[in-house]
Amino acid sequence: MYQFYQLLTIAGVFVYWLVIAGITVRVVVKRRAIGVSLAWLMIIYIVPLGGAFAYLLFGELNLGKKRAERAQSMFTPYEKWFSNLYKVRQYTPHVSSLYGQSISAICEKQIGIPALADNQLTLLNQTSEILTKLIEDIDQAKESIHLEFYIWQPGGKADDVAQALINAAARGIKVKLLLDAAGSRSFFKSQWPKTLSNASIIVVKALEVSPLRMFFRRLDLRLHRKIVVIDNTIAYTGSMNLVDPKYFNQDAGVGEWIDVMVRITGTTVPVLNSIHAWDWEVETNDRTLPELPECLPHKEHEITDLVQVIPSGPGMREEIIHQVLLQSIYQAQQSIVITTPYFVPSENLQLALVIAAQRGVQVDIIVPDKNDSTMVEWASRAFFTQLLDAGVMIHRFTGGLLHTKSVVIDENHCLIGTVNLDMRSLWLNFEVTLAVDNLSFTRDLQKVQQSYLSDSIKVCPEQWAKRSLANRIAERTFYLFSPLL
């Protein structure tokens, strides 16, 4: 009997070794960022069984067999749709700035989507104004309303939006609503899904989370895009979820969420609609590609906004938004201003910011003074020392949870959308951002950023160096996991 248990022990150790060795090889051959690989190896070896199990659940971009196959089959029809954008007269790469040309070149090569002219962009930075304007546009809808959000939180003016959608459906408008299952769990627990469905509104739960699905796809993949398209002529995107800040996360102790949205009319609207169509088809297998932009004649001096739509996420080209961010920082000559609620940059992004500051570019990063994610807040602080030493200026916004995701380069072009400067947004989530090559719009965004700066506390390098040992230990501890946050 003793020999039996001895053999059983040896067999168990051997099987355990095979599992750990197999996962280790898997981590290495994936050839991801060094920090990501090292973080996973650390978890696997420090927490042997739990770490291996966690990697199997969360270690790779497993979209699930059905979704992955569906996404693969969608490439050809969507590439064909995007290729037709090059034929419209609003495709005018020769009028782009040098910045716009380089960004468009990356996007055309990687995702086949060109920048288009003849857009009118309005920056909305007051949440009550955003919801009021959205309701006005919904009330004027003639044919269709497509929405997708990470979070829909019932309460306040968010309920007014829901009622406007019900009224639109009663007028015969086709309304489709796509919401992330995890982000909008409060919505799905409320009476609203049933109420909207009874009004003939199609409500779809994206990336549903359940224990039965954990072995078939990665559970923490999230639909983080915020898109509204009305009649294929008006669109909204930006950082704001469909929530009334006065009724959202009031017990988190971080204040009201501060957001912006961009209201768009013009040729970019059908492109954003096609991103919604992609997400809708991946989830439902129902294809509803929108009509292409109307090919209107124009003169070069009438061009208003050149806009590049940049989507990312599993099943799409990897790292595209990360590449655009890096290129934007590399091209900066005078200034970079970044706002983000979650700042956990990749090694390459951190290095790009350090080099920009060292070559004389003024770099300002604005983050919330208080964050709703303790892990992210401490991990974020671990990057401060190197950035401050290089001359980067870090500002902690005190007027609430600054949720705006924006980058302004040299005060004349910008990035704005749903993307946080963290690994989750850059590699895992379904995201969308706009690269805008327009001086007037960029100056409007710059004014909003300056208002954030006036309500912020600048981090003093000398005082930062005197922070407590306990804080330093917490920062370094969470820094080890930063590639996975």
Strand order of the largest sheet: 4-3-2-5-6-8-1-9-18-16-15-10-12-13-19
Structural class: alpha/beta
In total, the number of strands is 19
- Tally of separate helices: 18
Name of the CATH architecture of the largest domain: 2-Layer Sandwich
Shape summary: globular
Q: What is the assembly state of the chains in this entry?
A: single chain
Strand proportion: 15-25%
Low-confidence stretches: none
- CATH topology of the largest domain: the name is Endonuclease, Chain A
Output the radius of gyration. Answer: 23 Å
Overall number of structural domains: 3
**Largest beta-sheet details:** 15 strands, mixed
Mind telling me the CATH class of the largest domain? Alpha Beta
Membrane topology: Multi-pass membrane protein
Transmembrane segments: 6-29, 36-58
Protein name: Cardiolipin synthase A
GO molecular function: cardiolipin synthase activity
Short note summarizing the structure:
The chain has 485 residues and is α/β, with parallel strands linked by helices. Helix content is 45%, strand content 19%.
